[in-house]
């Protein structure tokens, strides 16, 4: 089963066809069975024993993921997650709200004073990277390096998962630099703790066990990517979607109590991470398709979140939709630890934008440029014409 050439701007018509006619199909490009239906995707996430997250084992000698929480299975995943959760607590996220609001306000004010507005460059990129860097305790002078490292990690993951295991020197160097950077900070925080997430990770303890420097470093790397790339795309998707549905923006202006539902609807309607991979460990089947140990599955979150068997009028963007159980943050033991932070950042961004903007649109002459990444839904730039309050 081949995939249409470029789905990076709007994969949803194809998802609709696959949901209806080929809910499980093998794809040679991915070397994986594509899974589209909500119930099937949820089952793959739930059954972590049959569908392993240890996808990177043996793919590369230089680029190892054996201590990264997202690439581990139970019980080691559960042990590391418990330690990380002690540091990355709901209170730690909630305590950031005043600072997040200040960062959002200053970035939006700066964006609105410019002549040519690009929402991605001026807000969606710097906002989450600033938040996660400050939360970790990284000096401001290193923020740009953070963004570069984050892009490299995304590209490395994609290369390995699609069989491109050749080791590029520049990728290896950046990967090593990032790990060494975090390990150095963690080592420093063990003797000189500060009020930041790296210090809490260094001190975290559960059942008499602590994170090693490498494990804590890898968790920081994960937060860097998930707290940066995915939130950038979520914010860009949010503004793109409201620009295409101005009546929903007006409704939100009249009723700000709908902000939490609006965030959930954007997460469902334009899922930032479109697909994830799992490795089959034993004989099984999905919707009648038999799978063997060593097979890979690609679960399409973006399709599952538009499954008409789960969501009424799934292709309609409706911020009054009751907040249903979308799969944007996954499900089961690998449910995204950063979900509360992403929701908080997006809610605050909406509040600040509603304070300052009456209406906005994407200029008709501007062609939207999708990301080059095959599994992320977002935009390289997002020009806006804005009517201020």
From TrEMBL:
InterPro entries: Cyt_P450, Cyt_P450_B, Cyt_P450_CS, Cyt_P450_sf. Keywords: Heme, Iron, Metal-binding, Monooxygenase, Oxidoreductase. Gene3D superfamilies: Cytochrome P450. SUPFAM superfamilies: Cytochrome P450. Belongs to the cytochrome P450 family. This is Cytochrome P450.
């Amino acid at each position: 089963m081949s995939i249409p050439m470029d789905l990076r701007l709007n994969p949803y018509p194809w998802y609709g066809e696959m949901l209806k006619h080929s809910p499980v199909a093998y794809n040679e490009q991915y070397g994986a069975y594509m899974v589209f239906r909500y119930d099937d995707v949820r089952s793959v996430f739930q059954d972590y024993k049959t569908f392993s997250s240890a996808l990177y084992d043996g793919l590369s000698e230089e680029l190892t993921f054996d201590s990264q929480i997202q690439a581990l299975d139970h019980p080691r995943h559960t042990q590391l997650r418990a330690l990380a959760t002690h540091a990355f607590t709901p209170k730690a996220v909630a305590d950031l709200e005043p600072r997040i609001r200040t960062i959002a306000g200053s970035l939006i004010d700066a964006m609105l004073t410019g002549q040519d507005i690009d929402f991605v460059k001026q807000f969606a990129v710097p906002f989450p990277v600033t938040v996660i860097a400050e939360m970790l305790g990284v000096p401001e002078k290193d923020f740009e390096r953070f963004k570069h490292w984050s892009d490299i990690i995304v590209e490395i993951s994609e290369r390995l998962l699609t069989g491109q295991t050749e080791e590029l020197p520049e990728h290896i160097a950046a990967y090593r630099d990032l790990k060494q950077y975090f390990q150095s900070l963690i080592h420093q925080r063990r003797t000189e703790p500060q009020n930041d997430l790296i210090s809490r990770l260094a001190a975290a303890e559960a059942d008499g066990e602590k994170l090693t420097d490498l494990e804590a470093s890898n968790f920081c790397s994960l937060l860097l990517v998930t707290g940066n790339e995915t939130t950038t795309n979520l914010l860009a998707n949010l503004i793109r979607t409201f620009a295409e549905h101005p009546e929903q923006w007006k409704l939100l202006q009249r009723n700000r109590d709908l902000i939490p539902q609006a965030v959930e609807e954007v997460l469902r309607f334009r899922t930032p991470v479109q697909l994830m991979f799992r490795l089959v460990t034993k004989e099984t089947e999905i919707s009648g398709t038999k799978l063997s140990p060593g097979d890979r599955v690609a679960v399409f979150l973006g399709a599952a979140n538009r499954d008409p068997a789960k969501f009424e009028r799934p292709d309609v963007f409706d911020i009054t939709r009751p907040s249903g159980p979308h799969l944007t943050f996954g499900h089961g033991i690998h449910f995204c630890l950063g979900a509360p932070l992403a929701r908080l950042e997006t809610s605050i961004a909406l509040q600040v934008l509603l304070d300052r903007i009456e209406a906005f649109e994407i200029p008709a002459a501007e062609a939207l440029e999708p990301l080059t990444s095959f599994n992320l839904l977002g935009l390289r730039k997002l020009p806006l014409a804005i009517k201020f309050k």
